[in-house]
């Protein structure tokens, strides 16, 4: 019996061969250079004190269209400029200029796979001394192939972290500041070393804040709840997009403070962010969420989101910037 051979278009395509990181093109202090040439001194202020801000941006490859789409390029550019202002950085590129640099960095690498892009403004002065003023700053943008941050298919298990989220009056919570991510590192390691996938983080007064590096939605009685930005949240770009998507799917969204115990009786919980994308939660503190499997709203949001970011849903084309 003859076996029909797949056509060239149907045959499995070999995975792209990974390039050495050193060969990838980065934007560094005004020039596009191989990563091997993008170096800073160990005396750089940002290296010594965490005085930098960054964004994580994803770009998604659509194999059928042979097209790479950068997700929320402008929104991320606007947010990093706001974070840079918190660090007393002036004379920043405009949003349009910054978007142009981000897109050009991606374009020069010729990716045909999913990508992570990280722009960062950092205090570049070589100096000892804790401060923000009277320091120069520079910009870099790197782009590298990147897959899933955590398992998004079967659902994730989370635990309440003993480490609280840094309060806005101590370190600006709505700024994506490099030094602040040590707080998240404590939370993430505590969770993983205790056998969980992620950390559930609380504010100083005990309200649900977010995961170690992701925003959060809780579904109760068909309503999607999410904490307000005044509860020391990073103002998530993906969070805002999911509020749009949920509304389009007829799911009411309510913004209010959430108690920890509400997660124990929730119908569904899911995380969102550039790294985690849309990740349904199936267990909180050893308690199953709902049925203990991915729920219908979480599955709907996850599936619609991934169709949107790969350019399959025209109604979300405004989220995307194609790399020409």
Written overview of the protein:
This protein is α+β, with helices and mostly antiparallel strands. 24% of the residues lie in helices and 27% in strands. It has seven helices and 17 strands. The protein has helices at residues 45-49, 73-86, 95-109, 181-193, 237-248, 260-264, 296-309, and strands at 25-28, 31-34, 52-54, 57-62, 67-71, 115-123, 137-145, 156-160, 198-202, 208-211, 215-220, 223-226, 253-255, 268-273, 277-284, 287-288, 320-322. Strands 8, 9, 10, 11, 12, 13, 14, 15 and 16 form a nine-stranded mixed sheet that branches. Strands 1, 2, 3, 4, 5, 6, 7 and 17 form an eight-stranded antiparallel sheet that branches. Strand 1 (25-28) and strand 2 (31-34) form a beta hairpin. Helix 2 packs across helix 3 (95-109). It is globular, with a radius of gyration of 21 Å. The N and C termini lie far apart (46 Å). The relative contact order is 0.14.
Task: Tell me how many strands there are.
Answer: 17
Question: How many alpha or pi helices?
Answer: 7
Output the radius of gyration: 21 Å
Q: What is the beta-strand fraction? A: 25-35%
Roughly what percent helix? 10-25%
- Average residue pLDDT: 93
Structural class: alpha+beta
Low-confidence stretches: 1-13
What distance separates the N and C termini?
46 Å
Biggest beta sheet attributes:
9 strands, mixed
């Amino acid at each position: 019996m003859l076996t029909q051979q797949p056509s060239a278009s149907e045959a499995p395509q070999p995975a792209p061969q990974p390039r050495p990181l050193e060969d990838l093109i980065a934007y560094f202090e005004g020039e596009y250079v191989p990563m091997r040439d993008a170096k800073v001194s160990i005396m750089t202020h940002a290296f010594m004190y965490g005085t930098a801000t960054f964004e994580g941006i994803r770009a998604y490859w659509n194999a059928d269209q042979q097209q790479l789409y950068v997700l929320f390029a402008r929104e991320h550019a606007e947010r990093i400029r706001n974070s840079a202002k918190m660090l007393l950085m002036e004379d920043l590129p405009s949003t349009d200029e910054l978007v142009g640099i981000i897109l050009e960095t991606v374009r020069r690498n010729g990716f045909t796979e999913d990508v992570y892009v990280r722009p960062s403004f950092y205090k570049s002065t070589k100096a000892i001394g804790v401060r923000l003023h009277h320091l120069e700053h520079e910009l870099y943008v790197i782009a590298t192939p990147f897959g899933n941050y955590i398992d998004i298919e079967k659902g994730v298990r989370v635990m309440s972290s003993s480490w609280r989220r840094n309060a806005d009056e101590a370190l600006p919570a709505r700024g994506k500041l490099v030094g602040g991510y040590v707080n998240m590192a404590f939370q993430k390691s505590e969770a993983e070393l205790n056998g969980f996938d992620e950390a559930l983080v609380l504010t100083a007064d005990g309200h649900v804040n977010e995961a170690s590096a992701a925003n959060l939605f809780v579904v109760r009685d068909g309503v999607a709840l999410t904490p307000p930005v005044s509860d020391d949240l990073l103002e998530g770009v993906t969070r805002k997009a999911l509020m749009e998507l949920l509304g389009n799917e007829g799911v009411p969204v309510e913004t209010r403070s959430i108690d920890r115990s509400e997660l124990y009786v929730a119908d569904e919980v899911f995380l969102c962010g550039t790294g985690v994308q849309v990740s349904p939660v199936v267990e909180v503190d050893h308690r199953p969420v709902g049925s203990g499997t991915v729920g219908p709203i979480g599955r709907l949001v996850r599936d619609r989101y991934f169709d949107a970011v790969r350019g399959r849903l025209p109604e979300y084309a405004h989220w995307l910037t194609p790399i020409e």
